[in-house]
Design brief:
single chain, 76 residues, alpha+beta, 4-stranded antiparallel sheet, 2 helices
C-alpha cells in the first residue's frame, strides 16, 4: 500500500476504505503501446465513486515507455 493510499484510507471509516480499495482494483490503466493493464490500486492510487474514462500520461510497467494510458472501469 502506497503512502498516499495509507493517508487517504486512514481518514475514512473502515467500510468506506474497504469499498475504495475494492473499486480501485477494478479501474485500470491500459498502455496504448503494448496493451499492458495495471489496476489503479496496484499503481498506488485510489479511484472511488468515479465514472467515465480518462487518459493519464505515465510510464508503462510492462514496456517501460511513457505514453497516454486509458483509465477505464474493468468490473462487472
Amino acid at each position: 500500500m502506497s503512502f498516499f493510499q495509507r493517508i487517504v484510507l486512514s481518514l475514512m471509516p473502515a467500510s468506506w476504505a474497504k469499498s475504495a480499495e475494492a473499486e480501485s482494483r477494478t479501474w485500470v490503466f491500459e498502455c496504448r503501446k503494448c496493451g499492458h493493464e495495471q489496476s489503479i490500486w496496484d499503481a498506488g492510487g485510489i479511484r472511488w465513486k468515479a465514472s467515465g474514462t480518462s487518459w493519464s500520461l505515465r510510464r508503462c510497467t510492462g514496456c517501460g515507455k511513457t505514453s497516454w494510458q486509458k483509465v477505464s472501469y474493468n468490473g462487472s
